[in-house]
Task: structure prediction
Amino acid sequence: MGVLNVAPDSFSDGGRHLDVDAALAHARVLVAQGADVVDVGGESPRPGAARVGPAAELRRVLPVVRELASEGVRVSIDTMNASTAAAALEAGAEIVNDVSGGLADVDMARVVAESGRTFVVMHWRGRLDGSGHAPAATSRDYDGDVVGTVADELGARVDDLVARGVDASTIVLDPGLGFSKDALQNWQLLAHLDVLGRLGLPVLVAASRRRSLADLVPGGAPPVDRAPATAVISVLAAQADVWGVRVHDVAGTRAALDVLQAWTEAAAAPRRPARHA
Result:
């Protein structure tokens, strides 16, 4: 899943693709590099970012979604607003990626349920307080077990969505790396993706350029320099049989995944018995 931010304040590439033509050009590059899905977002969910109203968000994302879908690109809409999701789905989006997991907009469950489309449900502890800004990281207290707690809370979120009419078979889970979690908690979740898998639903890993990767690159390096670390995580996530990985650097990630596939296929290929003199 390639990331296409059309918001001015996204944490790593904000403002680079605000123009529709620039956004479409970048999306086409992502597809050419091997993205299976392009995830289009018009609002930064980072803590402290100014919230964007649905009308402004739609002006940013809808022309991009509509054109990409018309070109046969599989599109995901990254939004917390049900009205944006509904319009994007009507324009051809196939996936709704909601970092709030349907908590920010009570109408999101209905929109997704009626569409029957894939719904990415992220673990989220933020609460919108009417301040006009995205929620700051709230509680990072997981009683010493971030993996078990996140799994339990995602399971409860799924139960609520199903009760609201969402088909469980359309749900993909996202552990919410970096959202109300510190670096160690992020690593613990990545190291135990199998626990989330026990919920019986596909898992999306969105670790690309996360701040927790900053310690692995030279001090002061920009987020783009975290791409190699992201590619390694993507390979490890693929080995954990995740549904997908959401990344900014599609080319590097695709190459890493192709290496894994070649390695796996070679390991499974039959070997001729060794000949001895």
In short: Residues 129-134 have pLDDT under 50 and may be disordered. The beta strands are 2-5, 38-41, 75-78, 95-98, 118-122, 171-174, 204-205, 244-245. The domain at 2-125+143-263 is CATH 3.20.20.20 (TIM Barrel). Residues 258 and 264 are 10 Å apart (CA to CA).
